[in-house]
């Protein structure tokens, strides 16, 4: 606990405000059954698009991911784990080049000084070959893991090029949820948003409504995703959805301009709009404190 306070003090001194998002039913009587002290934090990294080349968008495309790794490694207290929410690499039609990018990406993030890193693909990694190359490097595209009383569910809404989860995965999800109590702490990681944020820009999951319907009976569900290269906080009923910034270029706000073109690099404020996120979890309260962190300290 003392260490956790040190960490929060550090974030405060660095001038980085945290935003608290409450999920679920605070004060629910069954909360009393939970054990004390289940406070930990994880880091969400997203959308590094390794292999992207566009000097006007990011002249340091070959060095930004390494800077993010260094930034995470310099945190005063290492996170319990890191989750990388997809688009690890930038898309390519060439299967050999795709594997080269995945291998290079894996080499760079192997420098992260954290015991466990959980990966998932984005459509740039997986939609052209249904996740074949991705699985050679990182294994399953959807899975679950448990950590200190929280059930984490990683979903794949990218390997199917129609941006669907599909019936096989939906049945798997239903069976997984079935084993949980209705007040379980559930965190879902996905690449695309599970709700219709802006379908015209591919900012939606075709059968995301079916996922949300399965999650609805559970009181404490929070979703973290990527894909849209900016922060967005949205509620569907009692379920909170939080998108993360990118590690390569920011995208415009949903529908704010005719085309979904990246925002240009600003030489006076390099790396502006890029970043990663620190999520402090209080499992007992089902509370998530989000702090957005820059890749390079200004
Ligand atoms: Zn994407």
How are the secondary structure elements laid out?
Layout: H1 2-13, E1 18-22, E2 39-45, H2 64-73, E3 81-85, H3 95-109, E4 116-120, H4 123-126, H5 132-138, E5 143-147, E6 150-154, H6 167-178, E7 185-189, H7 208-215, E8 220-225, E9 232-236, E10 239-243, E11 276-282, E12 287-293
Parallel strand pairs: 2-3, 3-4, 6-7, 7-8, 8-10
Antiparallel strand pairs: 1-12, 2-11, 5-6, 9-10, 11-12
Helix pairs in contact: 6-7
The structure holds zinc ion (ZN).
Task: Provide a descriptive summary of the structure in words.
- This protein has 298 residues and is α/β, with parallel strands linked by helices.
- It has one domain (2-24, 38-293): Metallo-dependent phosphatases (Purple Acid Phosphatase, chain A, domain 2).
- Helices cover 23% and strands 22% of the residues.
- The chain is built from seven helices and twelve strands.
- It has helices spanning 2-13, 64-73, 95-109, 123-126, 132-138, 167-178, 208-215, and strands spanning 18-22, 39-45, 81-85, 116-120, 143-147, 150-154, 185-189, 220-225, 232-236, 239-243, 276-282, 287-293.
- The protein has a six-stranded mixed sheet with strand order 1-12-11-2-3-4, covered by helices on one side.
- A hairpin with a 4-residue loop joins strand 11 (276-282) and strand 12.
- Helix 6 (167-178) runs parallel beside helix 7.
- The model is unreliable at 25-34 (pLDDT under 50).
- It binds zinc ion.
- Zinc ion (ZN) binds at residues 87, 122-124, 191, 227.
